């Protein structure tokens, strides 16, 4: 039996589990009666070490019995088997994990680490354990909605961006789930998370996430940041009316062309001429549109420089016409070109940084094959990030509380 463990790793997990205080219903699991708290701590080791499979965790604890002791296992007896871990993860109620996560968030809030002044919501893809997600598979119909993976009935077909470049529009399909995470954009720590199938739109659970987060921390008068996927009028109104906050979300043009216009807002026609206002018309959705027309629409001597198709239409008002929506709701009234909006929206990059740390825990591709286990693994990954930060603050670490590597170096 190998009992050697590096000093930094032993001290790190001693600090980590010493800072955690939680209990779970039904004190034991498995035929040998392993404590449920010890099983949960073992999965936290798995997330902190970035292991992608249970077998890696089993080998690690078997060769580092002192860490298994810190988890809460009796190291003089055999450690849990593979099926004990798998059954525990499949049968564990995700609400119990969310309660533990909420407790850590409140404790960090009381210590002044997390805040809800600037919060950002984002989702990250989590691929299911199925052969259709194998990039070496050349099956033509592997992403056909009718060809659902038989090994995981809970997953769904989703799509995610395959490039962060603004001039590239590359997307990839996958079978799996989404992890929706509400981030404190100042500390870079999660406040609330929700796992859904991959076919759920990003903005669909946003209102439920805000409501659940408000029960943990008060988010009233917050600044809510999100990308174009959350550009939904109902979400703007919820942030403004329910939470008295401010929404910082760029407009999703939805494949519409951005017309050329003057500094005063008048659009420019195809001939390069400034168009004139021509009254207001309803848009059919309860709002108004400003109508612009050709400056020579009633001229009898002028000729259209671009010979527009509507110039020789035989009508009194000739030439092209354009419409511009008049801001009548909160979504349209936001000035997205001002410096304040751009600097505030820059804080949303903290969501991207956290998603990178989330993937380092081994959650980019799952080894489980059911929705309950997938949701539990995602929540455990977020709990590990909060637990590391809480342990670093309690032990007054001079390094960043966002990184487990920094806390381990200080051990």
Describe the fold and architecture.
The chain is α+β, with helices and mostly antiparallel strands and 411 residues long. 36% of the residues lie in helices and 16% in strands. It has helices spanning 7-19, 36-49, 54-63, 65-71, 82-91, 94-110, 206-216, 233-242, 330-333, 339-345, 349-363, 371-394, 404-409, and strands spanning 28-29, 34-35, 118-127, 156-161, 171-184, 189-197, 223-225, 246-248, 276-282, 288-293, 321-325. The strands form 3 sheets. Strands 3, 4, 5, 6, 7 and 8 form a 6-stranded mixed sheet that branches. A hairpin with a 5-residue loop joins β9 (276-282) and β10. α2 packs across α12 (371-394), α5 packs across α12 (371-394) and α6 (94-110) packs parallel to α12 (371-394). The longest helix has 24 residues, at 371-394. The two termini are 25 Å apart.
């Amino acid at each position: 039996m190998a009992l050697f463990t590096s000093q930094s790793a032993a001290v790190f997990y001693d600090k980590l589990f010493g800072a955690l205080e939680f209990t779970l219903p039904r004190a034991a699991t498995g035929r040998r009666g392993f404590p449920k708290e010890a099983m949960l701590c073992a999965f936290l080791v798995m997330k902190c070490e970035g292991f992608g499979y249970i077998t890696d965790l089993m080998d690690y604890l078997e060769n580092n019995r002192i860490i298994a002791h810190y988890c809460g296992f009796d190291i003089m007896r055999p450690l849990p088997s593979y099926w004990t871990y798998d059954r525990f993860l499949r049968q564990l109620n995700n609400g119990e994990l969310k309660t533990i996560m909420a407790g850590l968030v409140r404790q960090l809030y009381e210590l002044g680490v997390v805040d809800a002044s600037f919060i950002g919501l984002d989702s990250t893809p989590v691929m299911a354990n199925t052969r259709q997600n194998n990039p070496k598979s050349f099956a033509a119909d592997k992403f056909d909605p009718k060809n659902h993976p038989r090994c995981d009935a809970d997953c769904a077909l989703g799509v995610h961006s395959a490039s962060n470049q603004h001039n590239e529009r590359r997307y990839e399909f996958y079978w799996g789930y989404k992890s929706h995470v509400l981030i404190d954009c100042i500390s870079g720590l999660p406040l609330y998370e929700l796992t859904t199938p991959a076919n759920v739109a990003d903005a669909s659970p946003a209102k439920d996430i805000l409501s659940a987060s408000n029960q943990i921390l008060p988010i009233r008068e917050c600044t809510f940041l999100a990308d174009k996927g959350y550009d939904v009028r109902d979400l703007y109104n919820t942030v403004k009316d329910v939470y008295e906050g401010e929404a910082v979300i760029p407009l999703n043009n939805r494949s519409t062309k951005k017309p050329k216009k003057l500094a005063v807002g008048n659009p420019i026609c195809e001939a390069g001429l400034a168009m004139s206002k021509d009254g207001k018309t309803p848009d059919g959705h309860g709002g108004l549109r400003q109508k612009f027309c050709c400056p020579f629409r009633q001229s009898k001597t002028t000729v259209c420089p671009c010979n527009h198709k509507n110039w020789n239409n035989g009508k009194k008002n000739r030439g092209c016409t354009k419409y511009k929506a008049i801001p009548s709701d909160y979504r349209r009234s936001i000035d997205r070109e001002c410096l304040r909006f751009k600097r505030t929206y820059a804080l949303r990059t903290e969501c991207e940084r956290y998603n990178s740390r989330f993937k380092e825990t081994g959650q980019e591709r799952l080894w489980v094959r059911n929705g309950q286990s997938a949701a539990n693994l995602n929540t455990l990954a977020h709990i590990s990030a909060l637990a590391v930060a809480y342990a670093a603050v309690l032990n007054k670490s001079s390094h960043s509380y966002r990184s487990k590597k920094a806390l381990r170096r200080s051990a």
